[in-house]
Amino acid sequence: xxxxxxxxxxxxxxxxxxxxxxxxxxxxxxxxxxxxxxxxxxxxxxxxxxxxxxxxxxxxxxxxxxxxxxxxxxxxxxxxxxxxxxxxxxxxxxxxxxxxxxxxxxxxxxxxxxxxxxxxxxxxxxxxxxxxxxxxxxxxxxxxxxxxxxxxxxxxxxxxxxxxxxxxxxxxxxxxxxxxxxxxxxxxxxxxxxxxxxxxxxxxxxxxxxxxxxxxxxxxxxxxxxxxxxxxxxxxxxxxxxxxxxxxxxxxxxxxxxxxxxxxxxxxxxxxxxxxxxxxxxxxxxxxxxxxxxxxxxxxxxxxxxxxxxxxxxxxxxxxxxxxxxxxxxxxxxxxxxxxxxxxxxxxxxxxxxxxxxxxxxxxxxxxxxxxxxxxxxxxxxxxxxxxxxxxxxxxxxxxxxxxxxxxxxxxxxxxxxxxxxxxxxxxxxxxxxxxxxxxxxxxxxxxxxxxxxxxxxxxxxxxxxxxxxxxxxxxxxxxxxxxxxxxxxxxxxxxxxxxxxxxxxxxxxxxxxxxxxxxxxxxxxxxxxxxxxxxxxxxxxxxxxxxxxxxxxxxxxxxxxxxxxxxxxxxxxxxxxxxxxxxxxxxx
Length: 589
Prior knowledge:
The protein is mainly beta.
C-alpha cells in the first residue's frame, strides 16, 4: 500500500524509471535504441503463457567483415537476422529467415560454431512439445527432426547445446528431468527406446540405448527431481554443470559420466548456471533471488550475491572485462615470461581456459597475479545486476598484498601507480555497506571493496583429496560400444577434485532404474542440508552486493549475453537490446 501511495505521489517515479545507461569503473554503458531487434512490427509481444524469449549468436566469417548473425524466438515465431551490433542500426524488414510454428513453440536454440560458414549454418531448435529440429536458416532448409513422435520424451525442451568440439553430437535437457545425447547422423527409431543401465550415483543415472543398430538417443541421463532447467559445459568441454528444479547444482565429469560435486540453493529451484572463463568457478541463480558462486576445485559455496527482488533467470560471466593486477615486484616469483604469460584477457582463450595461464594463480602462497572476475545477472524483477568477484572473496584467509594496476581490459583510463581497480570502483558505490573491514583474515585494503559484504568466513574447506579421474574399466567398456561419440578423444584432466558424498541427493525418478541402491532413493530434507557444505547459512559465506542494479525493461528479462563491444539483453515482450560498452559507440549513431 505504501509503495502504491508513493507511486501515486510521484515518489516511486525514479524507482520505476527504465534506465538507458549505467556507469561502472570502465565507464558508461549506453543503450543503442536503433540497434533494437524484435518482430518486424516492433509491437510488444503479449507474453502470457509463452516460453521465454531466447537469443543465440554465431559468426559465419563473412568476407565483408559483418559475419555476426542473431537468432531469437518470440512466441510461435523464430527469426534469423544479420546482427549489426554497435556498428549500424538494425533493419528488421529483411530477416534472412523467419518461421512460424503451429501447435508448438520454440523454447531454446544453439548454433554449431565449428561448422558455420557464410553459406551454411547448423541451428538446433528445441520445442515446448519435446521435439528438436535441425535447420539451416541460410539455405532455409529443415534437415532433420528428432523425437518427432515424442517417443523419447514428451516434456518441454529446457536447454540444448552442441557438445564442444563436435560437429555432430548435441545434448538436450527436458522438463522431465531427463537429458539425452544425440548424434545428427543417426535416426531416432520408430518405437520407444529401450535402455540399459550404464552408470548410477547420487540421485542420477545414465543409460545407453539398447538396440541392434546404433540409434538416438545414444545416452539418457536422469538427473535429480523435477525439471532439469539448464546445463552448461565447462570451457574445456570436459565437465557439465546442471541446475534443476529440486534446487541442486550438479557438476559431472562428462567423459567419465561421474559426479564431481553438488550444491543446494538456499531455497527453491535453480534456473540458470554459467562457468567462469577459466573453469574455476560456477555461478547459479534461481528462485531464492540470489546468485551463488561455487568453487569447482573446492566443491563449496564461496559467496552469495543479493540484489534481485525476484527469481534470477540468467547468469553470465563477462569474458571481456577483467582486472589483472600485478603484485609488488619483490613478491613476484617466476620469470618475466611467466609473468607476461599471465597478463591476459582470458575471454579470448576459451579452448584452453581451464588449464590456462591463469591457473598459475592456484598457488595461493605467492599469488603473483590477482584477477577480478566480472559476471552479470538478469531476473524476473526486470533488473540487470553486474557483480565483481574479487580477491578477498576468492582467498579470504590471506592478507591482500599491496598491488598496482597492470591491466584494465576495457581501455579505461588507468589509475595512478599504487592505486587499485578495486579502489577506483568505490566512487560509483559510495553507499555500499562495507562491513568487510572487520573481517578476520582480511587487511584494511578490503574496505575499498565495492558494495561487498565480507561476512565472517567459514573455516571449512572442500572435502576429499585429489583423485586421478581415471574411468573404471566397466564404464569404459560400456561406452566403447559407442565409438561414434568421440567422448574420450580429449586429453584426460590431470587432476580432479574428489567430492565427499556424505549427503543423499534424493531418489532417481527414472522408471527403469530398478537396480538403484537405497542411498539414491533417500529424499533430501532441506532442513538437513542448511548449514552444511551443500548449503551454508547466509552468515557463513560472504554476501556480495551488485556493482550496479538497474531496471532496464517493462517485462521480465530472459537474456544476458556479453560480446566484445557490447552486452545484449532481452525481455519477454520480445525486444532484444544492445548496450554499447564504454567508448564503443560508433559515430554513425
